[in-house]
Amino acid sequence: MSDSSTLTLGVEKHPNPVSASERERLLQNPGFGQIFTDHMITLRYNKDRGWHDWKLEPRKGLDLDPASMVLHYALEIFEGMKAYHLPDGGASLFRPDANAKRFRASAERLAMPQLPEDLFVESVRALVRADRDWIPTAEGASLYLRPFLIGSEVALGTRPATDYIFSVIASPVASYFKGGASAVTLWVSENYTRAAPGGTGAAKCGGNYAASLAAQAEGQREGCDQVVFLDAVERRWIEELGGMNIFFVFDDGSLQTPPLTGTILPGITRASLIALARNMGLTVREEPYSIDQWQADAKSGRLTEAFACGTAAVVTPIGRVKGRNHGFTIADGNAGTVTGRLKAALTDIQFGRAADPHNWVDRLF
């Protein structure tokens, strides 16, 4: 089997990249996840050869047989991360080592080969350097990066695959929510759950997101922006949103977020905000919080703010909550002070506007 430490990145530049003028036009209003850069990373795995054929190449379609195992058994994991334009014209990643560790954990849960963390990080770095001109410079915009691993073996049978494709693609993005919503409205899902004990809730795999779409559609029909899921056992405890972790802020200034018990994705933004809040002298509890208590605390005024967080949405205030048996507004329905302080502290580090005492920033150039 090949030694991943001996791999060399092959480079094939795009023969006909998007022109500078067209790229500039696209970057004026990129939306989210609709526009893609010129290149991609690919790396292959075989159980006998190990990791091999590491390439930076023009972005193109993947050649998959109809019997590829990813199409039948959801052998797929992914990550979400961003590259940021810095004030001096450089660029950086935010905590790529944490993404690499979570990617390995997701692979382990789905019985997939675990990509060495240095290969993960170097792949992302190489793509950003190659497509550096695609990093947006507009306020709040960034280059979203999507590393993923799929089972490519051509076979039918419920077992781990022998062959895989790792790839990284990139997309310039603006705000995740249309119009950059100041505060979102959530729908409490009572018919659907996102994850159960012993399942894949802590892994970043496509199946978790596919399972959330029916609930998300239900919420949208009710005029909501996102759905909030409850636990699968008691249907009582708040877990997370369709693709974001959640925090609650109380009138004593303390924060609370659901604990990581295997059914919630261990968000990197979540972990960063906990550290930043504690640096500010705020108390942060990782404890269960019920939907009924959330409603009671919002109505009494004990709960003063709530927000969702994730790489894509960053920090998003929650203004209202709706459901079959619930309906309440948080404070005045707008972004709160603590939410704003934490978002500013996080994004100032990410965009190079503030010092980085935690060494989270990985400068690329």
How would you describe this structure in keywords?
nine-stranded mixed beta sheet; single chain; 365 residues; alpha+beta
What can you tell me about this protein's structure?
- Helix content is 25%, strand content 28%.
- Helix 6 (268-279) links the parallel strand 13 (255-257) and strand 14.
- Helix 3 crosses helix 4 (117-130).
- It has eight helices and 18 strands.
- By secondary structure, the chain is of the alpha+beta class.
- The strands form two sheets. Strands 1, 2, 3, 4, 5, 6, 7, 8 and 18 form a nine-stranded mixed beta sheet that branches. Strands 9, 10, 11, 12, 13, 14, 15, 16 and 17 form a nine-stranded mixed beta sheet that branches.
Short description:
Helix content is 25%, strand content 28%. It is built from 8 helices and 18 strands. The protein has helices spanning 20-28, 70-73, 96-109, 117-130, 206-221, 268-279, 291-300, 337-350; strands at 10-11, 39-46, 50-58, 76-78, 81-85, 91-94, 142-151, 163-173, 184-188, 226-230, 238-241, 245-250, 255-257, 284-286, 303-310, 314-322, 327-329, 361-363.
